[in-house]
């Protein structure tokens, strides 16, 4: 029972710690279907009221849309900024016909949302928590904002450019541009004042006089799919660098030999980042891989990296405990006592251990071995002398000595006590010298 408790308590404590960590993380992580999540109507926790107030102070009109269809109805043909707070719930296919020169901001879209949208971007990797990253690009808005808490999801693009190690990616789609941001922290009321979050959020949305705030918290029904798949352009792809004020500049994407390269030919620098302004992503080796290090198994890709890391940690702990327990396996070996203990206490301790284990035969074997040693020493016999030799030199019947030294195993405690008494009597009869004549008995 005690051994089971010693093995169960560490696992119970570890399980409680991991469970508590997962619960706290789930509570602290906002859900897309929460009505307060990045909502522009109020200033509270995970809402986006602070960002909306700062935009209104700059003279920008904010029109809230509860569905993707409402957002499309608000389009008037002039360039606008569309802020998609929940791209996993919105119908991104309806936003393919934005007016030319418009800008779309999508907050932390997942791999499935990017696949439905048809955008030239993929998820590179995700993190357990949002981290702070430096811009590491030439975009004016990112450079002015400085370090920001955007590194929760990283992306790779086949055209356009990225900042913050891929946590912010901008690329052209049709006649407008799209920027995906890997974390909602820069837009949240309780995080906007940290690092350069406010400057980055306001700079991304301060491009046009109108912002359509797509505040969707229930999944929109997707629009009918087109009958023919869209074709990609065959002309050379150009790198896109966003600039403030709603203007865009394009530069030919150089593939390293002085000629414009096609989609996805930007050269990586070993960690998935290009060398030009905007940190263009290509097919370079390193972190710029779309698989994120997981096999192409939908089940594995659906699991969060934290769960896989936890399972690996548990496996390592089990191996460590097994290795620690394995050192106690094998036959017992004699070891010197770490300190001097009175013989009586040592004998009683050993006796209680044998009693608890109900080792009657082992106990009797020890008593017989000690008795045989004393008898052979007293009779000047070799240590391996048998019972017949002992009986002959002691002048006792062979059968009597054999029954005591080589008898059957005791079946009960009473049999063990009787056998021990006979051993004690045999040793006393042989080793006690006979009385001298004339001496009182």
- H-E string: HHEHEEHEHEEEEHEEEHHHHHHH
Overall geometry: rod-shaped
Helix residue percentage:
25-40%
* Structural domain count: 3
- Report the strand count: 11
Taking strands numbered 1, 2, ... along the chain, how are they ordered across the largest sheet?
Answer: 1-9-2-3-8-7-6
Taking pLDDT < 50 over at least 5 consecutive residues as the criterion, the unreliable ranges are: 225-295
Number of helices: 13
Structural class: alpha/beta
Summarize the structure.
The chain is built from 13 helices and 11 strands. It has 441 residues and is α/β, with parallel strands linked by helices.
What report would you give on this structure?
The protein is an alpha/beta fold and 441 residues long. It folds into three domains: 1-30; 33-221 and 234-289, no CATH class; 343-431, no CATH class. The protein is built from 13 helices and eleven strands. It has a seven-stranded mixed β-sheet. Helix 10 (360-378) runs parallel beside helix 13 and helix 11 (387-394) crosses helix 12. It is rod-shaped, with a radius of gyration of 41 Å. The relative contact order is 0.09.
Feature tags:
441 residues, 3 domains, rod-shaped, two-stranded antiparallel ribbon, alpha/beta, 15% strand, 13 helices, 36% helix
Describe the SSE topology:
Blueprint: H1 2-28, H2 49-57, E1 61-65, H3 68-73, E2 81-84, E3 103-107, H4 111-117, E4 121-133, H5 140-145, E5 148-157, E6 161-163, E7 168-173, E8 176-181, H6 197-205, E9 210-214, E10 238-242, E11 248-252, H7 298-302, H8 305-326, H9 343-357, H10 360-378, H11 387-394, H12 398-405, H13 413-431
Parallel strand pairs: 1-9, 2-3, 2-9, 3-8
Antiparallel strand pairs: 4-5, 6-7, 7-8, 10-11
Helix pairs in contact: 10-13, 11-12
């Amino acid at each position: 029972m005690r051994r089971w408790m010693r093995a169960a308590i560490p696992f119970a404590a570890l399980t409680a710690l991991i469970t508590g960590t997962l619960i706290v993380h789930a509570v602290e992580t906002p859900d897309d279907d929460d009505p307060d999540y990045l909502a522009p109507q109020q200033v509270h926790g995970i809402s986006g009221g602070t960002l909306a107030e700062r935009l209104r102070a700059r003279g920008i009109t904010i029109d809230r849309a509860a569905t993707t269809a409402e957002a499309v109805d608000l389009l008037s043909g002039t360039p606008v900024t569309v802020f998609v707070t929940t791209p996993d719930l919105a119908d991104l296919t309806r936003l393919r016909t934005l007016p030319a020169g418009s800008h779309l901001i999508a907050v932390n879209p997942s791999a499935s949302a990017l696949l439905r949208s048809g955008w030239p971007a993929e998820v590179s990797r995700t993190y357990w928590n949002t981290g702070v990253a430096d811009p590491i690009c030439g975009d004016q808005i990112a450079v002015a904002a400085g370090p920001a808490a955007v590194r929760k999801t990283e992306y790779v693009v086949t055209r356009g450019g990225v900042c913050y190690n891929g946590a912010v990616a901008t690329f052209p789609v049709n006649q407008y541009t799209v920027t995906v941001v890997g974390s909602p922290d820069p837009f949240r009321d309780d995080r906007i004042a940290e690092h350069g979050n406010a400057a980055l959020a306001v700079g991304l949305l301060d491009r046009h006089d109108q912002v359509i705030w797509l505040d969707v918290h229930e999944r929109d029904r997707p629009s009918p799919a087109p009958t023919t798949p869209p074709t990609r352009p065959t002309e050379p792809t150009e790198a896109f660098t966003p600039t403030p004020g709603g203007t865009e500049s394009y530069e030919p994407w150089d593939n390293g030999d002085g000629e414009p390269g096609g989609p996805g030919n930007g050269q990586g620098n070993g960690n998935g980042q290009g060398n030009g302004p905007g940190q263009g992503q290509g097919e370079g080796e390193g972190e710029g891989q779309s698989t994120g290090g997981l096999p192409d198994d939908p089940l594995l890709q659906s699991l969060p990296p934290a769960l896989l890391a936890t399972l690996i940690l548990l496996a390592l702990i089990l191996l460590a405990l097994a290795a620690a327990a394995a050192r106690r396996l094998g036959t017992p070996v004699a070891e010197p006592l770490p300190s001097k203990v009175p013989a009586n206490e040592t004998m009683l301790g050993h006796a209680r251990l044998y009693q608890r284990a109900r080792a009657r035969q082992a106990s009797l074997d020890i008593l017989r071995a000690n008795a045989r040693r004393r008898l052979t020493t007293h009779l000047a016999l070799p240590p391996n002398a048998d019972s017949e030799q002992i009986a002959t030199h002691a002048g006792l019947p062979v059968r009597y000595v054999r029954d005591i030294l080589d008898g059957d195993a005791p079946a009960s405690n009473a049999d063990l006590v009787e056998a021990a008494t006979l051993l004690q009597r045999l040793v006393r009869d042989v080793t006690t010298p006979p009385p001298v004549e004339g001496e009182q008995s």
